[in-house]
Every structure is written in structure tokens, then in C-alpha cells.
Amino acid sequence: MKCPVCGYAESRVADSRPADDNSSIRRRRECLDCQKRFTTYETIESLPVIVIKKDNRRESFDRDKITRGILKACEKRAVSEEQMKQIARDIESQLQNQLQQEITSYKIGELVMEKLRALDEVAYVRFASVYREFKDINTFMNELKNLMTEKK
Question: What's the 3-state SS for the chain?
């Protein structure tokens, strides 16, 4: 690691500690030439995940889109913002761990519904009604019946 002050290529690590919910490591370094200290962060290099939309368009995965959808589904529910953000982080992590560069929006929606079903059933039904594009009350009622049957 080059020193940002003098450009010398050698430094020693003075301190290391986890940062950002253990997703990176913060290192305090000291230049072996000028003795100035500086901070570096080490993170896992992740491959970009491409989402294949219903119309076959491709776009980069965006965790914020998932978070916004979850926020809408959980509106006025007893679900904390941290729980909602954790679902989005969990899904992103799951996608990264699968090591697939492309995934369908359908699969992502199913992952979100799976997490919401375990967290809050009303939020799950709200998300499902938009995601699965319920056309009428019968489709909505069928989903509720399935949810009730699984709960027994």
C-alpha cells in the first residue's frame, strides 16, 4: 500500500478492526519511510449481479429497489426499518454467495416474499399482490387461503 503522503510503497499495520457490520476491515497503517499514519479499508470484491427483467432487459442489481419495495409493503406495520434493511442485505448476500452473474427478477421477488412471509404476513400479502399482479379479488383470496393453509 503506497503512503498517501510520500508515496513510499512499504507500510506496517498498526491496528485492524471490523467495520460496517463486519463486511469490511479497517486498518491503521504507518509508513515505514515518513512515519505518517493512514487508514485503509479491505472489502471482499464482489461480482456485479445482473437482473433479467420480465421483458428480458438487463440491469445491475440495486439493493435500494428491494428496500423501497419492502418499505411500501411494511408501511404502518410493526416492522422496524432495520429489519427491512436486513432483509435487503440478506438477499443481496444470498445472491452474491450463489456466484451467478445473472438472476431473474422473478427469483428476487420470490426471495423477498419468502423473507416477508416469515416476518409479517400482511406485508407479505401486500408485496405479493403487487409482485404477482393480482388481477381480481379471487386471486387475492386464493393467496390468503394458501397462507392460512400453510399456517395450520
Answer: CCCCCCCCCCEEEEEEEEECCCCEEEEEEEECCCCCEEEEEEECCCCCCEEECCCCCEEECCHHHHHHHHHHHCCCCCCCHHHHHHHHHHHHHHHHHCCCCEEEHHHHHHHHHHHHHHHCHHHHHHHHHHHCCCCCHHHHHHHHHHHHHHHC
Nearest to 77 by CA among 110, 118, 112, 121: 121
Burial of 71 by CB count in 10 Å (0-12 exposed, 13-18 middle, 19+ buried)?
Answer: middle
Q: Map out the domains of the chain as residue ranges.
A: 11-43, 50-151
Q: Look-up: residue for cell 438472476?
A: 103
pLDDT tens digits, one per residue of 95-142: 888 878 899 999 999 999 999 989 998 898 888 888 777 777 777 777
